[in-house]
Give the backbone structure.
Amino acid sequence: MTTFLITGAGSGFGKGVALRLAQLGHEVIAGVQIWPQVWQLRQEAGAAGVRLEVVKLDTTNALDRAHAFSHDIDVLFNNAGVMHTGPATEVPESLWRESFDVNLFATIEMTRGFVPALVEKGRGRIVFVSSIAGFGKVPFLSPYAATKHALEAFAGILRQEVADYGITVQTVNPGPYLTGFNDVGFSSMHQWFDADTATIAVPSEFIFEGTLPGQYDPEEMITAMVQVLTGESNAYRTTLPTEVAAQIKADQAAEWDLTVPVPTTTSQESSS
């Protein structure tokens, strides 16, 4: 019997994957950030008729992590994350730090805590939820993208370092799926951004309240995540939707030959 531990299972992909794995008969430990989510997810599991162990697991909390490390697991699904948006040079420092604390440092600590036991077993799987932002560059998404670019580097190097110990490392890179995560991330800018005093303007399409248009049904990504977690898919990187992945690849290729405008100089500057 395979035992999975999922972080960020209180909502979105984490909740969907936890319930799906439980429905398939797997042992699932679902970590959620706050106590009310513990109660809520237990109720949802009961209503769905599945067995799910729900624990409080704020990945930035050392006590919560220590409790999580007491579990004997086979697969770690590093899914917990936050998104903050806004002009790169105007996002408050506290939000930059929170982004790295949750998306990168806490994820590294969760991984560090379980690797020794997986090495001792000689087998295991670690899956990271990255993003298309992990190798794409969406304007006004710099804190989130920066953390995911860093996570891509960590996952890629870890994959090589633990391969000889029977541990598989993979990433999943979702595009814009309708889980609420993207909507909250973009609307969170309203708490601090002031267009009247900002140095960098934000186009109106990036400032909204409600549902971000053009998002996809998350079922596709949940199914793909389960396939990766159970070993049905051995792809190192799973990026969906397909059309978004194709666009990101094209953008990356074009960037190799990208040029930037050459600054113009005045006659006075040239003669000085």
In short: The mean pLDDT is 95. The longest strand covers residues 167-174. The beta strands are 3-6, 27-32, 53-56, 75-78, 124-129, 167-174, 237-240. The chain has nine helices and seven strands.
